[in-house]
Amino acid sequence: MTDDTADVIRVHAVVTGLVQGVGFRYCTVDQARRIGLGGWVRNRFDGSVEVEAQGSRADVARLLSWLKVGPQWARVEHVDVREIPAERGGRGSAFRVQPDR
Length: 101
Prior knowledge:
Helices cover 23% and strands 37% of the residues. By secondary structure, the chain is of the alpha+beta class. A five-stranded mixed β-sheet has the order 4-1-3-2-5. Helix 1 (24-35) packs antiparallel against helix 2.
């Protein structure tokens, strides 16, 4: 028997560049839901986009790779990522857009 929660991670990422006003949040939600991740995305008042995502290490890595490129209209300059404690319940809740911060 394997422990499915052993492979579950949660990351916090801040994406900088031309990432607001280009559909970045909604494309991120679409990507994360396709992959099967829980978490959220929101704009920050400094012009960056903030993301928390939870799922298997491989699935989170897929989203992080996508964040480094973003949708076609975005111009990603940098993605700062740190691992944070996973929430109970494995993958977490469905991926969603949070209010701006």
